[in-house]
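[job 0417] fold request received: Family 16 glycosylhydrolase
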Amino acid sequence: MRLRPRPRLRPLTRRFPGAVAMLAAAAVLIGGCDVARDAARDRIAGLRHVVAAAHARPAAADQKPGGPKAGSPKAKADAWRLVWSDEFRGPARHRPDQAKWSFDRGGEPQWGNHEWQYYTDRPGNVSLDGHGNLALTARHERVHEVRGKKCGFGPCDITSARLTTKGRFARAYGRFEARIKIPKGQGLWPAFWMLGANVDKVAWPGNGEIDVMEALGRQPGTVHGTIHGPGYVAQGIENHTTLARGRSLADGFHTYRVDWAPGKLTWYLDGKPYGAACAGQLKHGQKWVFDHPHYLLLNLAVGGDWPGPPDRSTPFPARMLVDYVRVFERAGR
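[job 0417] inference complete; emitting structure tokens
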């Protein structure tokens, strides 16, 4: 899909030389922990960049045919700069890039949610699918590494996968985005989230947890965005949105994102904001612990306190497909 040329923006800057300054002032005035204001701020910031770019670029550049495809990192270059990504290209059953990801292994009690699954690094649980996606697959099976071991919860017959960038990549602030197709079914719990990189020195939840996307397989039309910290551990500060007309997030790929600035996070589904959390909204006894680098995680859990256990209706194998994970910083910073 071509980017539309922007020739009409040039007369705007000539007729109104203070337009960029006016937009900048409006952006400063828009703030607070408010989703509608965040959306307006993003539109103003994008327009500021478009106006500035139109004023600076030669006309031929605006008229040049072609351009980046929709959804590509380059398509976001006007307002944001890509700083880290994984597009999951490669042959089927190959592991994801181990310079970017490592694998968490094992079962409860180390995850702390009474989950049923045992995480492995086997291709049957985590690998590229050969079509530009990462596949995290939960299976109903018994494997050698689980046999003879006591499972904390469940019958010890579910395997799955959990990836992390701990020790490889961590960042504070920016835009964190993934395009994912979640599975549906009772007891399934897909997630894209972040943990404070100081976890080895400051135990959870003091290091901070930012859940960009969590979904329950029994409610596949709803996405949840949450933060956990001291004073809001189990419940968290949670936002969610539900697709209209009974649609399911499991029917196709959707984009899950959080925009993170000092003291503030805003959650988006398919580019539309649906919730925010701010340091200023915390209550007595709660502490904001998110203004430092966090690393990324992807996992497909099964069972646990929130989703409940799987049952006979749960489809196995269940796959969570990840088209990409991308991290951006604001342009000009």
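[job 0417] notes: The chain is about 15% helix and 35% strand. The first strand starts at residue 80 and ends at 86.
[job 0417] exit 0
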